[in-house]
Amino acid sequence: MADQLFNRRDLFAYFIVAATGAFSNLLVATILQEWFTISYKSALFAGYWFSFVVGYFLTRLFAFNAKNTAQSRRQIVKFILVSILSCLITVYGSAILYELSKSWLGVFNFLIPFSVKEVNLNKLFSQVAAMGASFLSNYILHKQFTFRDTGFYDRLKKLLGI
């Protein structure tokens, strides 16, 4: 099962897709914090949901060869459920790691050479670490749940009376 779960092709494709999502998440969260008076956690939340849209289409098209299935509605519902968990890991994991790093190590800032932009390394590393944990969780759940027919969607419809 481990060979099937972590096969190179799917893992590499998912890594590229996730890197695109992570980059868009970082970019949106950074821009929101720089241009608007928005909290760190709120910026992470907005950045996450922007990358969610990017991630769904790229994951569906490239990562798990799910583009030819007729189960789009099922995949969207499952993708949203996995994404809610991932959002909690990313946003609250980042916020908790940031607060811990501040209290244990103090605040570290880095001035980008030849600019006036100062980067808060505590925030950056906290977000990257939480996104790494989210990546692992997402990969396993999307591969084993979202883009696989598990019967979950049928049970959910039955439970909701749809």
UniProtKB/TrEMBL annotation:
Its main location: membrane. Residues 14-100, 109-157 form the GtrA/DPMS transmembrane domain. It comes from the Bacteria. Keywords: Membrane, Transmembrane, Transmembrane helix. The chain crosses the membrane at residues 12-32, 44-64, 76-98, 124-141. One of its GO terms (biological process) is polysaccharide biosynthetic process. It is found in: Membrane. The keyword Membrane applies. It is a multi-pass membrane protein. One of its GO terms (cellular component) is plasma membrane. InterPro entries: GtrA_CellWall_Glycosyl (IPR051401), GtrA_DPMS_TM (IPR007267). Belongs to the GtrA family. This is Putative flippase GtrA. It comes from Dyadobacter jiangsuensis.
